[in-house]
Design goal:
This protein is an alpha/beta fold. It folds into four domains: 96 residues, no CATH class; 94 residues; 172 residues, Pectate Lyase C-like; 58 residues, no CATH class. It has 15 helices and 24 strands. The strands form five sheets. Strands 11, 12, 13, 14, 15, 16, 17, 18, 19, 20, 21, 22, 23 and 24 form a 14-stranded mixed beta sheet that branches. A hairpin with a 6-residue loop joins strand 2 and strand 3. The longest helix has 28 residues. It is elongated, with a radius of gyration of 26 Å.
């Protein structure tokens, strides 16, 4: 791998991290808490695309020339120095299809760090006209080389044996040929811990930040080939990858944490600083955070277990132990719910900022998250129904079987799932990657009183629904840490088919799940396609006719009991076959 990163300085000590406190020897001042650097989870979780032409393993060698070509094709306004490119320039430079180039723009818009960037706030029809800044695109392309941390095995395999299904009969040729069997085996793999993932991401950045800085830096005139300097504007592009502060807290610009830019006069342009100095400072802070993570994990493993701020599911009928937690800062986790119903409202998500939410390893349950979210991840669930409120950035559903997902969102990515049905109101094409089987997509089919308010809050548009335009990419994920046989990476993922309109039904959210606040939504905000509307009207008409016939039919008492028994049996069979039996869990114990 070619390395053109700035050389670390050894003649001068690195400046102290911004958290270092200074105090007068005569006036004792309480030291402020350490402020640590953290990786942004978003580009690593929602920003990786399994498109081989986006992945460069030679460091800066290819990306440097790509950056130069993008700059030559870019446009820049007189009011700002940001060079922007549209999908046509991206397709030409990277030699990818127009559809994949548009996918790159859509993906970056969902993980971009700067909420004031025009791409973040663009309507679906405006995204290509707005384009993306070249340097943000270059950072996005660099991190496509990231390899995810391998999932762990669950500590208690026996505990999930009765809720997690055995390997399906239709594993197919791919599972027989590739290590994807690793995540399809009976001992289901579970998501790595937050601490493990954060350490893995920081270690990646520790190794590659030199190259990334070299791609962002300018060469100082007359200073020789090693004189790379970084301006305050270029430093802010690193905000795509890292931030300072507590998880979930408001993130300040990187330049305000950098000692060499912290006190810059806003009316005067800051003088660029040597890239080597910036690299030293970043590596020092990363090392400090990695040490802190190690100490925290060690203390947790050796100390008593404390369940802080846990939520209790509404019902817990013969379930395994469940864990659902929401912190004032950081994401919300719903984990291990089994044979229960669980509901979370906007008021349950503490803190003022929109959250990311994770639903992990839930089985034979119904999960309702009736709240506005930035991101949502559903992982390792089976035989469950999961209702997501309004998700303004991205949803990822991974390693699920026989799950119904109902989501109103900007975009959704489906990876390594089987026999799942997705009822979607999405502004972008559903992305399907990995080893999927028997997936179905359908139009959005529910509502709750605050749904439209939440959609407006996060920017989901009800007039644009691309639920029936799934885009399938490679069946092999180049971002996992597994090796794959030659040629398999060219195999396209199995796409989803549209649900038969005659099988489409509305999903009714119980009134008592509506929460304390009353909203204005009285119906599904996403218009139903004609075929589904006609089918729904026909079903309602047939139901009315059947009710009329039953009412008018004169039967002996014994025949009435026989008919009633038959109807109950058929209804019970339908409840189990359709999965709607899960909704009845919320009635148990009431």
């Amino acid at each position: 791998m070619t390395d053109s990163s700035p050389r670390s300085s050894t003649t001068e000590p690195s400046p102290p991290p911004p958290s270092a406190s200074t105090s007068s020897p005569t006036t004792p001042i309480a030291s402020s808490p350490q402020i640590y650097i953290h990786p942004r989870r978003e580009p690593f979780e929602h920003g990786l695309l399994p498109i081989p032409k986006l992945i460069f393993s030679d460091g800066t060698q290819s990306l440097a020339s790509i950056k130069d070509k993008l700059l030559s094709l870019s446009s820049s306004s007189s009011s700002e120095s940001t060079h922007r490119v549209n999908s046509a320039a991206i397709a030409e430079t990277l030699q990818i299809s127009p559809d994949h180039a548009r996918l790159v723009l859509d993906t970056i818009s969902s993980v971009l760090h700067n909420d004031t960037d025009p791409l973040v706030n663009a309507k679906p029809s405006e995204i290509d006209d707005v384009g993306i800044g070249v340097f943000d695109l270059v950072v996005f392309l660099y991190v496509q080389s990231y390899k995810r941390l391998l999932p762990k095995g669950h500590r208690d395999s026996a505990a999930v044996a009765d809720v997690w299904p055995s390997t399906s009969a239709f594993d197919g040729f791919l599972s027989a040929l590739t290590p994807l069997q690793l995540v399809r085996s009976n001992s289901r793999r579970f998501m790595p811990s937050q601490a493990d993932e954060e350490a893995h991401q920081l270690s990646y950045l520790q190794k590659h930040l030199g190259n990334i800085l070299a791609l962002l830096a300018d060469t100082a005139e007359g200073e020789g080939e090693d004189s790379l300097v970084l301006s305050i504007e270029k430093l802010e592009h690193l905000g795509f990858l890292v931030y300072f502060g507590e998880k979930g807290s408001e993130r300040t610009p990187l330049s305000q944490n950098a000692p060499f830019f912290a006190n810059s006069d806003p009316d005067m342009p800051a003088v660029p600083v040597p890239a080597a100095q910036v690299l030293d400072w970043l590596l020092q802070n990363i090392a400090s955070t990695l040490e802190h993570i190690s100490e925290r994990v060690s203390a947790k493993e050796n100390g008593p277990t404390v369940a802080s701020d846990q939520d209790v599911p509404m019902t817990d009928v013969g379930s395994t132990s469940a864990k659902a937690s929401t912190s004032a800062r950081g994401p919300s986790f719903i984990e291990g719910i089994s044979k229960s119903s669980y509901v979370k409202h906007a008021s349950d998500l503490k803190g003022t900022s929109l959250k990311a939410s994770y639903v992990i390893n839930c089985h034979e349950s119904v999960i309702y998250i009736l709240a506005p979210l930035r991101y949502a991840t559903v992982y390792g669930c089976s035989d469950a129904t999961i209702v997501l409120g309004a998700v303004g950035k991205a949803v990822r559903v991974e390693h699920c079987e026989r799950v119904h997902v109902i989501a109103a969102a900007k975009r959704i990515c489906i990876a390594n799932c089987r026999e799942c049905v997705f009822f979607l109101g999405v502004n972008q094409q559903p992305l399907i990657v990995g080893d999927n089987h028997k997936l179905q997509v359908a139009p959005y089919n529910t509502y709750y009183s605050q749904l439209e308010e939440h959609m407006n809050q996060v920017g989901v548009v009800p007039t644009v629904n691309r639920w029936d335009q799934p885009l399938a990419l490679g069946v092999v994920d180049p971002h996992d840490s597994l090796s794959h046989p030659a040629g398999v990476s060219e195999v396209q993922a199995e796409s989803a088919i549209c649900l038969d309109p005659d099988q489409f039904t509305n999903f009714m959210i119980p009134n008592w799940f509506g929460g304390e606040a009353v909203g204005s939504t009285k119906d599904n905000p996403f218009p139903l396609p004609d075929a589904y509307m006609v089918s729904q009207q026909r079903n309602h008409k047939n139901l009315g006719e059947i009710k009329h016939i039953l009412k008018e039919t004169q039967l002996e008492e014994s025949r009435k009991r026989e008919l009633s028994s038959t109807l109950h049996a058929c209804f019970k069979d339908w409840l189990y076959a359709s999965g709607n039996i899960r909704q009845l869990y919320c009635l148990q114990g009431d």
